Amino acid sequence: MTTPDPSVGVRYLVDDVDAAIAFYTEHLGFTLNMSAAPAFADVVRGPLRLLLSGAASSGARATPAELSGSPGRNRIHLVVDDLEAEVERLGSQDVDFVSALVSGPGGSQILLADPSGNLVELFQPRT
Predict the structure, then answer these.
(1) What pairs with residue 50 in β-bridges?
(2) Domain 8-125 indexed as CATH 3.40.980.10
(3) Which residue, 77, 78, 93, 104, has most beta carbons within 10 Å?
(4) Taking the model in full, what pTM does it have?
(5) 3 state SS of 67
(6) Is the peptide bond before 38 cis (omega within 30 degrees of 0)?
(7) Tens-binned pLDDT, residue by residue, of the chain (127 aa)
(8) Are residues 105 and 126 in contact, defined by beta-carbon separation less than 8 angstroms?
(9) Which residues of 101-110 are buried (b: 16+ CB within 10 A; e: fewer)?
(10) Helix/strand/coil for 42
(11) Phi, psi (deg, nearest 5) at residue 30
């Protein structure tokens, strides 16, 4: 077995790699690591390596056709210091939220979707 990578890789299938790059880098603080658009890009935030795979990528081609048309209910989870401030900032940038802000015993969260419908959870832990 190979030595584990210090980052965690998640692959999202996206309709438009360039739009996904812009969404994650401009709105959510990711850094572009590598782009082979329109097929593929790799963006990073901390230990999270997000692989953005367009239709021409091998990752998308390996996905069975019956699963490729809709994003799953899984999502990446990004911890923020001030959720209300993030909601205001992103709302002013015309980012659409797909849920209301919800508070529970562990903290507060809200969901947004990338341009292809993949979910992102912004979470502020209870202090």
Answers:
(1) 10, 43
(2) no
(3) 78
(4) 0.78
(5) helix
(6) yes
(7) 657 778 888 989 899 999 999 999 999 999 999 999 999 999 999 999 999 988 888 766 665 666 555 555 678 989 999 999 999 999 999 998 999 999 888 889 999 999 998 889 899 998 8
(8) yes
(9) eeeeeeebbb
(10) strand
(11) -80, 160
